[in-house]
Design goal:
- The chain is globular.
- By secondary structure, the protein is α+β, with helices and mostly antiparallel strands.
- A hairpin with an 8-residue loop joins strand 3 and strand 4.
- The protein has 9 helices and 22 strands.
- The strands form 6 sheets. Strands 3, 4, 5, 8, 17, 18 and 19 form a 7-stranded mixed β-sheet that branches. A 7-stranded mixed β-sheet has the order 9-22-16-10-15-14-13.
Length: 426
């Protein structure tokens, strides 16, 4: 009962519906008959998917209240009888600590405590690497799903802002067209006199490949901690998820594209708005904000990513006698700046540094993650003689800006992009 996978499928259905409706709205038209049929079909599918998710979560909550059958005491023998399954995705283990204890005892070096738990023989658990000395067990799906939800779930505002799209491949190849309606290349429109020949144009498509790179967390836990199973389960899943989420988010912004995503602050698509002439160090003025806003592609789709150090200065900014910041905390925790929400993030630099204020349109960034989620394994032998267990999580994730460079406008010298920041004020 992989709830994370069910949610991913529902998100994909919802995204199709939103894209279909957005395309019609942008073209100022109604849905075609074919589009409406597809929309109706997807709506039926989404209702079913949401129903399954609700039922699965309710069943999971009920199972947690009832609790699993207590595991029989493990005797120092070669085999331990299989326990009843606590839930469909746990392979019979009550929690992560129960699983880790079984793995620890499955090592022949455990001596008198050695016991081969039959639950570890489940096909979904066994993962043998090169030789017995490197053997490990995959953690049951339900526990892997929990950390996947913590990394990509809706409780994190940044991962909701840049939501990596699931894919089954380690690389995604697409075709991009960076031409503009006013440019001299790509698809063009033209006037013609009656009876004259039309001049054909064609899309200037270029392949764009996004690699999914490996992101891991490798954690050691003492045997004393393993004995406190509930604490272990909470500590490992939440701390590892937090570390992975931070690293992925940081790469979306600052990654250099070498073995990791290409972040917008490190890409050629970034627009850096100059500071005001004579501006004092570590200050923000209204011209900074207005200039950044003016250079955004589709600013009504963008949000401000800001370090909280900047807020005290932003709250007092005015254009004429009109404040440009509004305290609409119901919409955004940082309020509203020039009509767009503020998202506080520790990834933004401190006041005055390049990157302290970033204006970002998430539609200009492509992010992908492996749809099978996380590979989560517990080693059988590693660090056994140190009385320490080793846990390893592996994700594959990638991303890059849609544009390879800022867009030139038809009237004016300034360029525009999906990513705008304000120059350093130091």
């Amino acid at each position: 009962m992989n709830i994370a996978l069910m949610k991913n499928e529902a998100r994909a259905t919802s995204a199709r519906m939103q894209d279909r409706l957005s395309a019609a709205i942008n073209e100022n038209r109604d849905l075609t008959a074919e589009e409406q049929a597809a929309q109706d079909s997807d709506q039926v599918m989404l209702d079913k998917q949401l129903g399954r998710i609700k039922a699965a979560e309710a069943l999971q909550a009920q199972a947690a209240q009832i609790g699993a059958d207590p595991a029989s005491a493990v005797q120092p023998s070669a085999t331990v009888p299989a326990q009843p399954r606590a839930s469909l995705g746990t392979d019979g283990f009550r929690n992560l600590g129960d699983f880790a204890t079984a793995v620890r005892r499955a090592n022949p070096a455990a001596g008198a405590e050695y016991a081969r738990d039959e639950r570890l023989a489940a096909p979904s658990n066994v993962h043998t690497e090169t030789g017995d000395s490197a053997a490990s067990y995959l953690v049951p799906a339900e526990f892997r799903e929990e950390i996947t939800d913590l990394v990509f779930g809706e409780e994190d505002p940044f991962m909701d802002f840049i939501a990596p799209e699931p894919t089954s491949s380690n690389r995604v190849v697409g075709l991009g067209d960076e031409t503009t309606p006013w440019g001299s290349s790509g698809i063009q429109a033209a006037w013609r006199a009656e009876g004259t020949q039309m001049v054909a144009t064609q899309a200037a498509l270029s392949p764009r490949e996004t690699q999914l790179h490996e992101l891991y967390a490798f954690v050691l836990a003492t045997e004393e901690l393993l004995e406190d199973a509930p604490r272990l389960s909470n500590l490992l899943t939440r701390k590892a998820a937090s570390a992975i989420r931070w690293k992925a988010s940081s790469a979306f912004i600052y990654g250099d594209g070498v073995g990791k995503p290409l972040g917008w602050m490190n890409s050629a698509a970034l627009v850096t708005q100059a500071k005001k002439s004579g501006q004092a160090a570590d200050t923000v003025v209204a011209e900074n904000i207005a200039g950044a806003y003016a250079r955004m592609i589709n600013p009504t789709q963008a949000s401000w990513l800001i370090n909280s150090d900047v807020l005290p200065q932003i709250m007092t900014l005015q254009i004429g006698n009109q404040p440009i910041w509004q305290p609409n905390f119901a919409v955004s925790p940082g309020g509203i700046l020039l009509g767009r929400p503020i998202l506080f993030t520790e990834h933004a630099k401190t006041l005055g540094d390049l990157g302290d204020i970033q204006f970002v349109n998430p539609n200009g960034y492509e992010a992908f993650r492996k749809q099978n989620g996380v590979t989560f394994a517990d080693s059988i032998h590693l660090y056994f003689d140190y009385n320490i267990r080793a846990f390893r999580w592996i994700f594959r994730i990638g991303g890059q800006p849609v544009l390879s460079a800022p867009v030139s406008v038809p009237n004016g010298a300034s360029t525009k992009s999906h990513f705008v920041t304000i120059a350093e004020r130091a």
